[in-house]
Write a structure and sequence with these properties.
By secondary structure, this protein is mainly α. It is built from 24 helices and seven strands. It starts with a strand and ends in a 47-residue tail after the last helix.
Length: 594
Amino acid sequence: MAFLRLGSKSEIFHREGHTWVCTSGLPSDICINTGEMSFNLHKFPLLSRSGLLEKLIEEYSNGEGSSLNLRLDDIPGGAKAFELISKFCYGVRMELTAYNIVSVRCAAEYLRMTEDYGDGNLVMQAEAFLNEVLGNWSDSVRALEACEEVMPQAEELHIVSRCIESLATKASTDPSLFSRPSSGRETRPNVSFLSLLLYRRLILAIESRGLRPETIAASVVHYARRYLPLMNRQSSFDDVNSTVTNMPNTCEADQRALLEEIVGLLPNKKGVTSTKFLIRLLRIAMVLHTSPSCRENLEMRVGAQLDQASLVDLLIPNMGYSETLYDVDCVQRILDHFMLVQQAAALATPPGIAEEGQIMKGSPDSLTPITMVANLIDGFLAEVASDVNFKLPKFEALAATIPDYARPVDDGLYHAIDVYMKTHHWIADGEREQLCRLMNCQKLSLEASTHAAQNERLPLRVIVQVLFFEQLRLRTSISGWFFVSDNLENSQNQINSAAAQQQRDNGGDDDVKQRVSELEKDCSSMKEEIQKLMKTKRSWRNFTRRLGFNRKSNSCCPKGPKASKLRAVAPSSGNRQQNSEKIEVVPPETLKVN
């Protein structure tokens, strides 16, 4: 840390309670009071250096030899600053540092300690040392922090703007200076110690010089954790509400203003601030009853990067008048904004890059965020579905916001629907039908289909659909086996023909012979694979005969009210071109359930 020693005389001041006494051997003829401190000094050393003291002494003196009492309550820096100025006037050794230079510079200006009252007066020397302080990052931070004690005078002398300008310039040149130390004892002052007013001005100045948003966001997050007590609470929100209730109104108002300012300082770039932190701010904003614009700002930020959130993050306690435990309306607004961002990104894609189908459904890479959000919302629905106060229209609105293509599998949505129907067992059959239309039975996994086929809470139509698609899936699997077997047989003949033709065309070439030899080896390997598949093919044929797929079966007589009718028809001899049986699948719409 920079410092400057002025004066050469040894210490002649000592303190007695709230009084400073000069022990130069001469009796004191002036007493200057500032705050609670008194300074018993001599007129001549003071008036020879200060234009203000010279004027006051002339105005209030009653004659030579008379003592004088003056009050200087308005002096910047108070008694501490005047103590250093008194030592300077007497030529006593004193030390200027980054911590006291601002108050000394302002006090010297207040007392008019210019070159008109002696060469090398305090204004000039303090100004020179201040320029030296502003050349160093750490000292500039200390000086800016010290400005808060003498803010009006520091603003008038442009010391605040000079400190901010110095820090912003250095941060743009070396961004590591602005980074917070990761661990251990801090080796340099951190800007998070500044008041909100100065911190905001510094952030805006640094941002205008192009510092990376990630660096700015990290600093703002650190500042929020330091000055927002609710950010660091790990307990339940019942305790948080209790804390806010017991908080003085002035303190709550200060916290509310601080949070709104922090939200305004966060960079707008997507992803530079974690979603977890943004949702935490949103929760606190609800507790502190910040302005609607502040909460809307946070909801939009969360919505823009909703794919980075976790289920626990979305379980936002309800602070409003709704009867549900969690704030479903807030999650709906966040999800709506996410979908708007996705649609805007899709429409902004140049037509030459994305085909028409990709604009509607997205490429595999663009599907990743929306698929993650679909899984997240399905998990949220399953979590809040057990709330008896969760109304069906809100469930449907939240589930329907996710487009069908975003869910590769509908198992999560089926689970949420099942939990809702189990908890809300009193809903009518029509409402159950309406609820089940949200999911696609064709996109249920084998495990989910098995569960759904035995689920008594589902409408009969849904169970029939599940069984139909399971039958269709079985038919596709069996046909696929036979199709692969026939393709392998055709591949063998093609390889043999190609090898023979290659040998005829290039019979004397050694390289060609080597290729033919390699093809023959590949052909032998494929023959072995074909023989294995043929055995598998015969096994499948026996399996289908046992299931009755090669003969017409009688209609099933269901024992219970929930059953479907399946029938298989044996193919004619002319339909065996692919060496596979044909299975006729009866759509569920044509079935009549007794």
